[in-house]
Model the fold of this input.
Amino acid sequence: MKLADRHRVAFGALARAPLRTAMLLLATAIGVAAVLVLTALGEAARLYIADEFQSLGTDLLVVMPGRTETSGGAGMMSGATPRDITLDDARALLRSSAIATIAPLVVGESSVSVGSLERDVTIMGTTASYATIRHWTMASGEFLPDVDMDRESPVCVVGSTIGSELFRGEPPVGRWLRVGDRRCRVAGVLARQGISVMVDVDTVVMIPVAMAQSLFNSAGLFRVLIQARGRDVMPAAKRFVFATFKQRHHGEEDVTVITQDAVLQTFDGILGALTLALAGIAAISLLVAGVLIMNVMLVAVSQRTEEIGLLKALGARRSQVLALFLTEALYLALLGALAGVLVGFAGVWLLGNLYPDFTFRPPVWAVLGAVLLSMGCGMLFGILPARRAARLDPVAALARR
Amino acid sequence: MIVKVWPTVSPQSRSSPTPDAAAILRLEQLTRIFAVGDQFVRALDGVDLGIGAGEYISLMGPSGSGKSTLLNILGLLDRPTSGEYWLAGEQTSTMNDDRLADTRQREIGFVFQFFHLIHRMTAVENVELPLMLAGVPQAERRARAMEVLRRMGLEARVDHRSNQLSGGERQRVAIARAVVMQPKILLADEPTGNLDSVSGGEVVKIVEALHDEGLTLVVVTHDQAIGSRAHRRLLMRDGKVVQDVSG
Done:
């Protein structure tokens, strides 16, 4: 039997049972579409995070207190805390020729108020260079003044939402704002930029780092952001950071330095695993579709017993009967997969329209994988019915026993 | 139409062909035992039989006498429990399943009581089926199928599906399918059993005309009138051939 004839006969058999065929196509299509949509969701999360960290710039180093190796279980259980990073530590980093600028950062929660309006917000204590490092722009006014980082200038910068909500639509620049038990004059309003590195910039209040330290009664810094003088000097800058802290912290390298690359790599790993897990969950529906194909094919074999007996009487070999039924299963899986790809991309397009901030794009491996897996399932679960058909005794089959 | 190709002849006027010296089918001590629950049923019980090329044989007997079992073994659809069966000089017990399928395809045509046409296919597609299984190219098999259907007087019905055909037409399509591979042997199991007398008569004329062209014909029937038309009449009872009458 020629290949083209086998396909013609298999296709004819499917076309003559349109409802059964449609149900099987639907089952497979749902499985494939689920893989595409779920992996697109995972990929959208990965791209979103990657985009967030890419905005930090490739020449950024972030220093945080404690070593990742020592800040785990044992230290926490024993109550041991890493040594604080102080403003002096941060200032010492500026001695390196590889480092262009630094921005110390203290983060906390506090209430802010203007007149009778009050709300709790995230307070970020830093210096003028923070806006440079993060490439932030101002909607109005200026960022924090470029003064010595020990100085508690009574100025602050507010996010756009805070600016519009607390000042009731009036220009905030030059107005006074109460932050905890202190007051500061608003120097500027940040341009609207939404969530950046998991912080809603529009709802923060930024104050000088020294003021934040006294507000939160903490000498330690949350982070130190370092801008190197270029990507090529990043290793030198990193070495200098460790050397400086070792020297200043009595021989202990008790800080962790992360780079954008490392952060991206970590998130890539986590979110890549998440996408894979989502794909795995969706793939289960493909297996279910495969089981469905098997069941319906078994029914089809039983319904077409007489036909199989006839084919054998006409000289069909076992292998030909097997191939015929496997071709049918393969057709179902392939057509179902193609329908699933169409439905999946339609779903992804819909998600993209509903959530335009995210880039929904199923990974190529997921599309290919879903199609191949559905075909594999079709073949795998088609084998049992096809073998049953091939092994039918022609006499019994013709007698429909 | 049929008359032109295969002139209708009465059993009396047809000359009885002389069987070839070497039998095309030869059975020796053939038995077939079926297990039914914990019982064993001896459907064939030591059958010895030789059938020459070009013979016209009727196989008669009461239900359960072993006629259909014998026909199935002759057609290589079933294997005997013991004994030997030679087909065209070849010992069939040594053939594997593929070889049996190939031999069936090449040498044997089947006509069944219930036609066994594939409903989703047209008449011509049904006739093409054996050619398709044999890998004959589409254009050639269509031409061959059309030619045989024309000989069956069905040229106007080639594109009809089986549910659009009468019983007689369905059986003629089934006969066309059985002979399109030009087999040496035609095995017919109650070919008129599901037809009215007129359609049955037409079918008998067709298979007899095919026999006149040299086909070896074995017909299983309950119908005494049809069975008596054969040149050699075998009577079966309890799995044995109890009567073998020629002439």
